[in-house]
Records
---
Amino acid sequence: MTTTLRAECFVPGNHLMAGLLGTRDEHLRQIEQAFSGDQIVVQGNRISVEGPSAEIVVRLFDELILMAQSGRDLDSSTLARTIDMVREDIRPSEVLRSEVVRAAGGKTVRPNTAGQKRYVDAISQNIITFGIGPAGTGKSYLAVAQAVHALQSRQVARIILTRPAVEAGERLGFLPGDLMAKVDPYLRPLYDALYDLLEPEGAQRLLDRGTIEVAPLAFMRGRTLNSSFIILDEAQNTTPEQMKMFLTRIGFGSKCVVTGDVTQIDVPGGRSGLVGLEPVLGGIDDIAFVHLTRRDVVRHKIVADIVDAYDVAEGRAGTTQ
């Protein structure tokens, strides 16, 4: 027998109602679809809910009111993530108000999901953080944002960004230029994040001074990296030997973030240095593993749908083997 509950909330101001309910009540319809077993009635500034999830729905509206009062724009993607967080008993108003860094041009970088909030908190609290998850979850961008914040607040003296150049053999040799020119296409996503956070001119000045270094993973061998914020991106494409080499480069006063997606391994032979690492290092103090999921995808909704479709297809393939 399903228990029917009743709950209500009051919206403090007519100016909040339009943003809360959406154009032509599109947000209200999205909430009704998410909680199809509940009846939602809007009368003036009072919202009443009756059904098995009435308390959750009212808590959702309370959170949306707080977000609207803080000036947060509400769209369908933000609303969907907010619904997910409330269902998990997480307060979206706190997650979405957290500030990672204030970037060039006044842009503020914030986590957009509960998983992203766990990720940025882990980076703040640990020496080494592994961020593992699918495309579009903000693994690399948030890591670079944390690095910029650490540099601006003088927690570190430099930022080092590195990625493995997977095609390090014959095909790379056909590219024009010196070694850095050959590996530049692999490093371009890291440059893009830097330019977005610091603007091209500011980022280029720091690159020219050596305050920010962007280099292929091979350049890390034999070095000890002190007072640095180091990011290893696309770590699923390291070999176990490369991963061990990289992790043992970390020196005093440094912080490290390792990002990767274990569903996109391109390393020759499939021997990824990221796979199976958590059981080995998970018990060490100041090392954290954060797993992001499709709920943390903040790109177009189709990206999350694509991730889901691949997960389903790979699951079917696994059962037929």
Note: The two ends are 42 Å apart (CA to CA).
---
Amino acid sequence: MTRTTRLSVLLGDYPHTRPLKDGTIPVDKVDCHFPSAAPLYSAFPRMVRDLEFDVCEMPVATYFQAREAGVPVTLLPVVMIGATHHGSLTRLPDGPVLDPGRLAGQRIGVRSYSQTTGMWVRGILREDYGVDASDITWITTEDPHVAAYRDPPNVERSYGWSVAELLREGVVAAAVLGPRAIGAQGTLLVPVIEDAEAAARAWTERHGTVPANHLLVVRDDVLKSQPDAVTALYRALARGIADTAGERDLTTPAGRAVAAGWSDALARCLETAARYAREQEVVRTPVDLARIEKDAASLTA
């Protein structure tokens, strides 16, 4: 009788995960259980604090912090979602126009200081506009996913408010929110960076990559005891990404970001993200990119 392994796999709902979840693409000799979490990010602290799942989607910044804290997880080189973030720093349409190069001294809202989108936005501000993360007071509404992490001194916690409420009530001048984040209330937001799409194109051309937001991690004990099952899951996801390419707009950064396998683009992405994270004190020790690449590449050989 063929032995079947069982894996608990927490993935978001995307075109490339649908074939695995509905069984269209089987995971060879693996019985995958796909728990759900709403919102998806509520699962991330459960993974890094309690190792609740065998395999879990995870934001880049959370993964870096988890490694630094000694959480026993290994990266699987699958970009689940990614996008450019020049348009993710937004303001109210009837508020004052903000110069991204003159944001020093301002208060900006973000769900958590270690949120990956916020990390990319702060990196952009420093690299493209000369504004350091420490020049701004960051108002957060949630704790970091990794319990051991402590925010820098220029981060304040606001209890009982959402980021959208902070912006609407004038507590912050701008927020890390998508342009349509307050759309349900009838308000469309305006990017702080003018012609954000052109600025994003210049960034991607300069770096040769698209910012990744979520990748995958596997528990080290699962990887050690069930390596074939992990490899089978990776191959099924890679097939799901390939088979659903027609459902993504590959002319957009978000469409191009989704990918499986170690690549030069992923290496450049993680190198840039690691630099941003260190500059911003998202992590306080250098990220061992060579070890990450070695471990991830060995899983997909």
Note: The first strand starts at residue 5 and ends at 10.
